Amino acid sequence: MFPVAWRLDAGIGRSRALPFWFSCLGVLSVRFLTTGLGVLLLLTVGLGCGAFGPGQGMGADGLVDADPYGDGGAPTDDDDGDDALLLHCEAQPPSLTIHGDEGGSAQLLVSRIAADGALEPASNVQWFVLDDFGGTVDSSGVYTPPPTHGGRVEIEATVDGLQGICALEVYLEMEAIDSSAAAVQPEVLDLSPEVDDGCGPDLMYPLGGSVLARDLGEPVLQWTVPVELNVFVVTIENAFTSLKTLTMDESWAPSPSQWASLTHDAGGEELTFSVAGGLVDPATFDLVSGLCRDSSSTSSGVYQFGTAGTVYYWSPATSGLWSVGVGAAGAQAWLDNESTGHCVGCHTVNLSNSDRMAMVYGGGNGWAVAVDVATPEAPVLEPEIRPGNFTALNSDGTRLIRSYEGELYLDDLVTDTIIGTLPVTGHATHVDWAPDGSRVVYASCSYANDRYDWQVWGCEIRSVDVLPDDQFGPETVIVPADPDWNFYYPTVSPDGNWVAFNRHAGGDSERTAYANPEAQLMLVSLWGGEPILLSNASLPGQTNSWPRWGPTEGDFAWLTFSSKRPYGTTSHNVSQIWLSAINFNDAVQGVDASSSPMWLPSQDSGTGNHRPVWVPRY
């Protein structure tokens, strides 16, 4: 028997210098194995935890050395029994609650674990707060967390080349009083509301089951009240951070700093929203009745939109395109009838080339136009030259496909020439070019009304292979025609593996593809298969049209679309831009991959906004 124990733990890879093996000390005879999971211990009795670095118990074969003394395992007179093998680090207290600006701190205690198992306090400790959590450690080992967020923080202690990890859970509790409730007694924030579904406010936005993009701006919480209530306590919380706000309004939004605290990575990826209401005397502002709340709360995920950029959408207010940047204060007119002399719409970009955008001037059967996003006032392809309805650009912006009278025309934007037409079937329209350039998808339709491409029905979704030298290969039917459904508006995902599209039920009398009231969002593999209804994103009877992809971030790709679904209490029956997080892992399983959508912040809530197109960087 000899004193040794190392085991792979969560600390691997967190040290500033690699390799290090986070481990625990025990007494046993053991063989260590290196596998795809790291160094594994077959049997262990842990007494303390720390980390090994190069030369600290490592054999020449890359295995942890079970005989660090080189003498068969037993210490000899030449061995320094005081030499530490490991560090043990702990925080006292192990969890800390911070109330607003009061602050708080925890003592970090580090011990050296000698070969004989003895513990002795360590000195000359160097400290490193991991994962950009923030906070400071003073010379006596007192850690003060940042006042901006909660979470589980890990702090690396280093002594003479040994490492140990201190873990501390930090909870942040914030309170705020909105200016509308300045005269209300702040003690109302401390009251426990009675659960009463007939009294409690009904939260209308955010939507339960949604995923909110933390970097797209703060959501405006909106609610209705079933009885007379005029003061409200709004609570937003994650696993470690909470915010209670007192307001007399029936909507409220956190400040940018409050939102940053609530959506910090360390707090996890879920938020819970709730609203309690009460009644105060409007003359004295004394509380007349206690608080009540609904029995349910609203939970949503929180994730990163991920890439700076701009969403461009069509607005009927100016018959043109408006832009709203990520985190911008508001939307602004970009290209419209006033600046161009034409109605500007049906715009598109290729996600692999954010510098160039194609669009149509003059409405249906109008003129295909291409511009550089940085200089839209100087078109690359001028209007009144080539007719078109829907357009698509290749990944380098040198080729344009435009639909017109059931054909797909290919243009060379470098030489300003028409190359020819694509080999297509039926009335071809609603074209999109995959970001990797490998395929083109389109709607192949049996019928079209007066050749306007939003009046099409009997459509199926097809793809065409893109070959060298401006050639196109055989077609593939991705979603075959169905007499009970119309399939249209296909768009290829950023990774090139999926196609989002619209469908609606009905025959001849409901043939319009333009913001059809019963439109649903769908997803299918680019290579075909069973289509998946994105039911979480598709509120029945609310148009759910014009799907276009945003960026991919982590587990999600963002799908933008327009819908007339209510935006809280702000707008009803008005097309607005919405975003749903699409989880491709769910799509592979053949189940609904969508989340309930979030409203695109800063768009104009009073105009019927259509066809959102995301452009990175601009």
Task: Summarize the SSE layout with pairings.
Layout: E1 2-3, E2 21-25, E3 27-28, E4 32-35, E5 38-41, E6 48-52, E7 84-92, E8 95-99, E9 106-114, E10 119-121, E11 126-129, E12 136-137, E13 142-144, E14 151-159, E15 162-177, E16 194-195, E17 202-205, E18 211-213, E19 221-224, E20 231-237, E21 241-247, E22 251-252, H1 256-262, E23 270-280, E24 287-293, E25 298-303, E26 309-315, E27 320-325, E28 332-335, H2 337-340, E29 344-350, E30 353-361, E31 366-372, E32 387-388, E33 391-393, E34 399-404, E35 407-412, E36 417-421, E37 427-433, E38 439-445, E39 447-448, E40 456-457, E41 460-467, E42 471-479, E43 485-492, E44 498-505, E45 520-525, E46 532-533, E47 545-553, E48 556-563, E49 576-583, H3 584-588, E50 598-599, E51 610-616
Parallel strand pairs: 8-15, 15-21, 16-24, 18-25
Antiparallel strand pairs: 1-3, 2-6, 4-5, 7-9, 9-10, 9-13, 11-14, 12-13, 14-15, 17-19, 19-22, 20-21, 20-23, 23-24, 23-25, 26-27, 26-51, 27-28, 29-30, 30-31, 31-32, 33-34, 34-35, 35-36, 37-38, 38-41, 39-40, 41-42, 43-44, 44-45, 45-46, 47-48, 48-49, 49-50
